[in-house]
Structures are given as structure tokens and as C-alpha cells.
Amino acid sequence: MSSHNVYTSAGPQVTAQQNEDEINQDNGEKLLERLCQQALKGKSTLNDVNKAFVLMEGDNNTETGETIGDGKSAVKRLQNMGYVKDEKKWLTKKGFDTISRMILRNIMQNAKSSGVGEHMTNLRGSGEITMDMTRKYEFGDDPKNLSVHDTLFNAILHHGNNKFPLNVTTQDMAVHETYSDTRAAIVYCIDLSSTMKTKMKDGTSRMESAKRALWGLYGANTKLFPDDSVYIVGFASMAARINPYDIPYLRAFDADEFLHYTNYQAALQLSRSILRNVTSDNKKIILITDGQPSACYV
To answer: Consecutive 10-residue runs of the chain (298 residues): their mean pLDDT?
Structure first.
């Protein structure tokens, strides 16, 4: 009687549930990408967003021919996932933050790396964070930064006496180096004049590109530099402060509207007024615009 050995694969078995989870995750990413596109286009209502989406089952994406779906509308699924809500301002905080990270990730992926920057300096300045490195005491140094260990060592070394009481002079004293935890106050000014509606070669408008840049920069600030103070100003003929969570709903003025011109003066005046009340030493104003000013105050 012959026996037969049965060999089984030792590798991980992919289950139907795992495949389904991967498909759902992939579909979720595609939905968020489309949601990002609609937010950058400045859709006014959730109904407008709904019209821009295809139904998930049986309705193919007209651009790629792919099918995405489980029988529910795309917007309904996004609502269930907590990214949108049926209100005037239809994007939730979760949706805003997720799209912000997505834009930032895409920007970083497309950025090309370069050589290591050299920004060496011998000037350390003063600040509030204590370092292990020490230096000789100078008149005016804060006594709380005194290094007791190095001071006593210097006293013994300089005077040749290792018995107490030690003779300590200012020449023996050493203090810890310090540096500041630098914080910045930034005002981003986005151009809302009518020329921002101009289409570019890739089919998107200047307004979409400006919103993408603003959204990504705001996301980078809040994620990488949470202690920074960030403000947003929208401007055309006049300027106004904007809530960051209103970025998705920004749109450029039409050419037949009175406020469709470009007034840098208004944007800079309001920005300086905002920064005047901020205590940070590092203050910056960044303009996101497409061209020359066409209006000013007289």
C-alpha cells in the first residue's frame, strides 16, 4: 500500500474578507480623491457634490471606466464615513483634515529631493530651552542656567584646590547654552479676483491651484508646526479674514461684479493689522495670487 504525502503552502492565505477589505479601502481612497476635486472646484451645496459623483453600483466612472460601488451613492457613503454632512457647509472637520493631509502628501510626493542644505552658524542666541552644552559665563546671563558641575570643576582646575570651601570666581562660572522654540505668525492671502477663474493647460482653474496650495500650506503648518499662529485673508477689491474651514467654499468673483479687481493694498493692510496684535517675533505674509494689482485705495 503506497502512501502519498500532501504538501500545503506555508504562505499566508488571502481570504475573501481580506480581498473585500482591500477593495473597500481602495474605493474609499478614490472617493476621497473625488471629494477633494469637488471641494477645490468650490461646490456650493452637498447636492452639487452629489450630482458630480457617480452612483457606486452599475454606474461607471466616465473618465476611467471603472466601477465603484456597493449599491449606495458615493455621497451617502461619505456621509456614513463622517466626511460630509447635509448642511450648508457640507465638509466635516474630519473631511477637511483628511483632504488637507491628502493634498500635502501629494505635494511632497511630487517634490524632487536636492542636496543637503548648509546653514551653519556660530551664533546660538538666547532662548528658553536648555541644552547640555555649556560656555563661559558672561555678564547678563541668567543665573538659573548656571552649570554647577562645570563651575565647580573649573574652580578646582583653575585654583588647584579640591577641598571645601572652594574659591569660586566669575572666571570659573559656566552656564548652559539655550535656544528658543521658534514660533511664527503667518497670514496667507488668497486672491479671489475674477482672473483666478482662468483655466490652465491641465484644465483646472487658477483658483483650484491656489486653494490646493493654501489648503496644503495650512495643513503643513497645523501638522508640523502646531505652535504657529496661522491666519487666512481673502482679497479682491477689498479684503476680509477667512475661517480656515471655509477654504473649500472659496470662489473667485465674476468679472461683472464690482469686487472682482485685485487690491494688494487691502490684503497687506489687513494682514499687518492682524500681525500687530500677535506677540511672535517671526511674522510673515504670503500672497497667493496670479498677477499684478489692479485696484488700490486713494
So the answer is: 45 48 61 86 82 53 42 75 89 92 84 60 58 84 87 86 82 83 88 93 91 93 88 95 94 89 94 92 92 78
Indicate the length of the chain as a whole number. Answer: 298
What is the maximum span of the chain, computed from C-alpha positions, in angstroms?
A: 107
Instruction: Give me the torsion for CA of 265, 269, 271, 274, rounded to 10°.
Output: -170
Q: How far apart are CA 185 and CA 239, in angstroms?
A: 19
Q: Which domains does the chain have, with CATH numbers?
A: 20-107 (no CATH), 129-179 (no CATH), 184-288 (3.40.50.410)
Distance between first and last Cα of the chain:
107
Tracing cell 454632512 back to the chain, one arrives at: 85
List, in sequence order, every residue forming a beta bridge with 130; answer none if it has no partner.
178
Global confidence as pTM: 0.68
Compute the distance between CA of residue 171 and CA of residue 236 in angstroms, rounded to an integer: 62
Cell 528658543 -> residue: 180
